[in-house]
Amino acid sequence: MDIPQELRKLGLKATLPRLRILQLFQESKSKHLSADDVYRLLHDEHIDMGLATVYRVLMQFADAGILIRRQFEAVASVFELNEGGHHDHLICTNCGKMEEFFDHAIEQRQEAVAAERNFVLHQHSLSLYGLCGDCAASIKPMAAKKPRRL
Ligand SMILES: [Zn+2]
Ligand SMILES: [Zn+2]
């Protein structure tokens, strides 16, 4: 993605902090960053942008379709680069780690479920909550506890 050109197309000035914010998303291992994460990463690089401004810039990017805003349960909104393709998420409720997945069978089932009920599907988001492998290993007692049958 040619970021400066993208920004100009959207009528947004390609200021250094704006460019840096988008680079952070490209460099980030987790790919999903909250306004707070971005604020702290900028701060580490001595880029002084207030949290409210960071949030406003992220929302501008989201409105422009460069970023996607995700709202998961019990965590602050996170943003990720809009790379075009669809994916769903696994969220660790202990450390906040987010992983992406795409499962063809699930996608097909969802479409079938909607079609069987005469729904015209526009979009969907599937979020799976639980413990990531690292947390499951370190929180032994909880992980060992059998899931309660309802
Ligand atoms: Zn975890
Ligand atoms: Zn994602």
Protein model, in words:
With 150 residues, this protein is α+β, with helices and mostly antiparallel strands. It has 2 domains: 1-84, Winged helix-like DNA-binding domain superfamily/Winged helix DNA-binding domain (Arc Repressor Mutant, subunit A), CATH 1.10.10; 85-150, Dna Ligase, domain 1 (2-Layer Sandwich), CATH 3.30.1490. The chain contains 7 helices and 6 strands. The chain has helices at 3-9, 16-27, 35-44, 51-64, 104-116, 133-138, 140-144; strands spanning 33-34, 67-70, 78-81, 88-92, 98-101, 127-130. The strands form 2 sheets. Strands 1-3-2 form a 3-stranded antiparallel sheet. Strand 2 (67-70) and strand 3 (78-81) form a beta hairpin. The radius of gyration is 18 Å and the shape is flat. The N and C termini lie far apart (48 Å). The protein binds zinc ion (2 copies). One zinc ion binds next to loops.
